[in-house]
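Example 9 (inverse folding). The structure is encoded as follows.
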């Protein structure tokens, strides 16, 4: 059996590692939410960092599993990277779906509160100074400005948008991690 065929037979491992690390991420977020210690604004950075570590681990273990299965057979950076990308794609899809469900049903007040904060910030803004500093605001009224800010916040801060941003963000990070990990394992470490 050619090496490439054996590598694609390893897809179950990619799925397994992606689902394990996505599940850990979901359990962490749900645990913090349930305990009412979910960090707001500044603390969100730490949850993102943990998720970035989890996707890196899923990619690494998927590539390593493929490497072990192909021990002694010819392999390439591209074949390793594809294995990592499969794992990253499953992780990204799982987290995007969870993000949508989380903001739609579990913490349904979070995004509306963020929208209200944006509207309050727009209402309290020194609109005359904004008009002087930005030509785009010089031809609209404060009410039009507030309405535009509200529409923009409602578009960006919706469960669907959050899920979409999560999907594309994790896919992009997954591609980068897959390429870097595959390159390091194949070319630098000669594995």
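The amino acid assigned to each position is listed next.
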């Amino acid at each position: 059996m050619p090496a490439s065929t054996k590598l694609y037979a390893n897809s179950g491992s990619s799925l397994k590692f992606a689902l394990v690390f996505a599940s850990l991420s979901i359990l962490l977020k749900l645990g913090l939410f349930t305990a009412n210690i979910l960090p707001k604004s500044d603390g969100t950075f730490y949850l993102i960092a943990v998720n970035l570590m989890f996707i890196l681990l899923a990619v690494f273990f998927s590539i390593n599993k493929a490497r072990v299965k192909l021990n002694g057979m010819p392999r390439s950076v591209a074949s390793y990277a594809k294995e990592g990308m499969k794992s990253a794609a499953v992780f990204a899809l799982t987290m995007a779906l969870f993000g949508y469900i989380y903001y739609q049903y579990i913490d349904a007040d979070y995004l509306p509160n963020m929208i209200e904060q944006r509207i309050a910030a727009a209402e309290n803004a020194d609109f005359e100074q904004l008009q002087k500093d930005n030509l785009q605001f010089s031809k609209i009224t404060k009410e039009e400005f507030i309405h535009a800010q509200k529409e923009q916040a409602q578009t960006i801060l919706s469960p669907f948008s959050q899920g979409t941003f999560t999907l594309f963000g994790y896919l992009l990070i997954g591609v980068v991690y897959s390429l870097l990990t595959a390159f390091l394992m194949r070319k630098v470490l000669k594995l």
